[in-house]
């Protein structure tokens, strides 16, 4: 199978960070952006798996400009140490927030910081990453948060974000994806307000935000429909057979990455958008409609406040943007 099912515009000179880049959507997003000339930092918590991902990319594209950053998004200390290392590098043009637990615990567990583990891994770690990195993003940078079909299949209990009263494995995953999208859209609103405030401060017309936050979901993308990549994607024959039975409504993760790569690179993309496959579960990227819950400003503000409390830091977007148009 071809890793690169659709072309990508040249990305030479662009700096990209992809979290959870050692497998799945994150790996194929990294591989495709690196093949187009971007410098890609692959982030994950396992150095060995990151090394295997880098070797696989360089095996296909020997000239690929890639490096790694070991970060465990379930640990705020690990995230902040990663931010410190990133601040010594060139400003980022693209941040793809992909890392997350899909196979969630059957019982509620907590992170080293005392937060519900799935929320910590899928949401709070990325929130802390953005809080530290936002001033270091390049003008015109994009923050692409990974959405999920699960957002349409679950209710959202903002008053029980930590699932202390109602934990189950499915809810933990679905609620974390709704929370992540809610934060992404709230970030877009705050970036727009910061741009307007900065313009008004100097008597200028309203301007486009310096950073764009949006959501992309990869449809129903599964391992058995994905090319075999040693050390990265190695489904068993049984898994391939079972996944082949779902071919009509599923695609490989290399094709799911199409939507994420489009959100990261295409000219027709802007902050606040929601991109997904044309046929919901598969197909080429199209502009879609997010769930009402994830777009609700009142919920977004509440989730943002709860994320600040859980991470122990205020996230002032206006201050991070430096009050400039």
From TrEMBL:
Pfam family membership, one: adh_short
Keywords: Oxidoreductase
The UniProt record lists the keyword Oxidoreductase: yes
Family in the record: Belongs to the short-chain dehydrogenases/reductases (SDR) family.
Protein name: Oxidoreductase
């Amino acid at each position: 199978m071809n890793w690169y099912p659709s072309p990508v515009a040249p990305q030479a000179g662009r700096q990209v960070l992809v979290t959870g880049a050692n497998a799945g959507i994150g790996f194929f997003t990294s591989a495709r952006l690196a093949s187009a000339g971007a410098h890609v930092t692959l982030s994950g918590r396992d150095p060995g798996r990151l090394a295997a991902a880098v070797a696989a990319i360089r095996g296909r594209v020997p000239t690929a400009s890639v490096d790694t950053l070991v970060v465990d998004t379930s640990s705020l200390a690990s995230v902040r140490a990663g931010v410190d290392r990133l601040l010594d590098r060139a400003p980022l043009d693209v941040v793809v927030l992909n890392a997350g637990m899909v196979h969630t615990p059957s019982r509620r567990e907590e992170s080293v910081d005392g937060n519900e583990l799935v929320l910590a891994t899928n949401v709070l770690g990325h929130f802390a990453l953005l809080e530290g990195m936002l001033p270091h993003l390049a003008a015109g940078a994009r923050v692409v948060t990974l959405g999920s079909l699960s957002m349409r299949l679950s209710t959202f209990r903002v008053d029980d974000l930590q699932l202390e009263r109602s934990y189950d494995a499915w809810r933990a995953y679905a609620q974390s994806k709704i929370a992540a999208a809610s934060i992404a859209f709230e970030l877009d609103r705050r970036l727009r307000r910061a741009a307007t405030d900065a313009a008004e401060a100097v008597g200028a017309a309203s301007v486009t935000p310096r950073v764009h936050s949006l959501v992309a979901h990869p449809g129903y993308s599964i391992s058995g429909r994905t090319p075999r990549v040693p050390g990265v994607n190695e489904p068993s024959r049984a898994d391939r057979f079972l996944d082949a039975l779902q071919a009509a409504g599923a695609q490989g993760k290399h094709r799911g990455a199409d939507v994420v790569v489009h959100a990261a690179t295409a000219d027709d993309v802007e902050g606040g958008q929601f991109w997904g496959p044309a046929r919901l579960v598969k197909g080429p990227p199209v502009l879609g409609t997010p769930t009402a819950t994830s777009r609700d400003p009142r919920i977004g503000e509440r989730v943002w406040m709860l994320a600040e409390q859980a991470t122990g830091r205020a996230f002032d977007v206006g201050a991070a943007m430096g009050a400039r148009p």
